[in-house]
Specification:
306 residues; 7-stranded mixed beta sheet; alpha/beta; 11 strands; single chain
Length: 306
Amino acid sequence: RYPDAALAELRRALAARSGVEPEAVIAGVGSDEIITVLLTALSTPRRGTDAPTVLTTTPTFVMYAMSARVRGQRVIEVPLDERWDLDETAFVAALREHRPGLAFIASPNNPTGNLMDRARLERAIAAAPDTLFVIDEAYIDYSARNQLDLYRRYGNVAVLRTLSKIGLAALRVGWLVAHPDLVRELDKVRLPYNLPTLSQRLAVVATTELAEELALGTARVIAERERLAERLSRLPGVEVTPSQANFLWVGCERSAEAIFDGLRARGILVRSFHARGGRLGQRLRVTIGTPSENDAFYAAYEALVS
């Protein structure tokens, strides 16, 4: 038989996990499909503009801009400030100048790991009531707080979530929490039978029967994140951005390319952004592993930066 086209049981489970009603949830093949559904549904240029426009930050998750550009949409990227936080002045100015239909903001952000400042984010939302703000909470299970209150307070806010970052990436299950009238419109462009029965059922089990086990797993990652961050921050010349994700954003005086190559030669892989240049040329994204893996990374990194 075909999968449940309405995703009914899955939507109930994801809604319960998010603290909303099932009518406020649309599910897809990971966050990527939800992003494409949003871009497809909002692909008509706004009155007075010549192309649909998407606003986001940089650096951030690449799929917002990539998915928009392949659809011929205009993408405006606003650099984060010196602390990798939302540059409120520049972002609000871009909202007013370009009048985007969609604004994507990852919080916690990938690759920097930090939450966007709550007050700055809310002021940006309030400044553009006709723009749909999609707050991407892919890493929210590792965070001290979420931003669902902004969805509850503002009609132009939706929250994007996924199971991929808590060890269930192979299920390819993502979802959007949005106001029910918007969900109904988005569902018109969602492909039928988009999630296989196996993914639907395993996601339900994971978010209900195995919820406690998943929470224990994320707690272990958080503990290791804090342990590794504390050790790295004691190294001379090393800067660690406070993280609310399952990785660390680490900078030092040496080039990221040199450190990346040195780590790779020792059998350790991290993510380097040196090819993009500028201030990213000295930054690495380091995913939290097991205690022994984290210790091996630390020993190698310490040797390379000393």
